[in-house]
Write a structure and sequence with these properties.
By secondary structure, the chain is of the alpha/beta class. Helices cover 37% and strands 18% of the residues. The structure holds 1,3,4-trihydroxy-5-OXO-cyclohexanecarboxylic acid.
């Protein structure tokens, strides 16, 4: 089983960026965390981060035939990007949305998730743990479809 883990804009600044919201651990720590989860579950993974909407769309398109599922934190593009929604719908791979924070408990504009409309599940407000939940959800789904 091979998963593509996508992180959107500004997540590369974890640790520096609004630590009271996103925590003090940096992006390298998040990547290590995700790789460790995948290793311990025997899952192959590729991690991709971009600050560019089009790069994320292209990566999703390239996932077709190359990955079994997608875990995505589209960050701010969550709330704006129909292009990411359409790309997820186009490849139709099982996808799970993750947010470090509880987007529903923040500003009203964060309550809309376009990407989430193409995802089977959303884990929000769980910090790094949300990525683990998303990976385990996809693993369970593949193990017992
Ligand atoms: C985020 C929540 C988004 O609203 C925000 O724009 C982000 C990060 C999260 O992980 O909590 O950049 O996706």
């Amino acid at each position: 089983m091979k998963l593509l883990i996508i992180n959107g804009p500004n997540l590369n600044l974890l640790g520096i960026r609004e630590p009271e919201l996103y925590g003090k651990r940096d992006f390298a720590a998040l990547e290590r965390y995700v790789r460790d989860v995948c290793d311990s579950e025997g899952i192959e993974c590729e991690l991709f981060q971009s600050n560019y909407e089009g790069a994320i769309v292209e990566k999703i398109q390239q996932a077709l035939g190359a990955f079994d599922g997608i875990v995505i934190n589209p960050a701010a593009y969550t709330h704006t990007s129909v292009a990411i929604l359409d790309a997820l719908k186009a490849v139709a791979l099982p996808a799970v949305e993750v947010h470090l924070t509880d987007v529903d408990a923040r500003e009203p504009f964060r309550r809309i998730s376009y990407a989430g409309m193409a995802c089977e599940k959303t884990f929000k407000g769980l910090g790094f743990e949300g990525y683990k939940e998303a990976i385990l959800y996809l693993k369970n789904k593949m193990d017992s479809p």
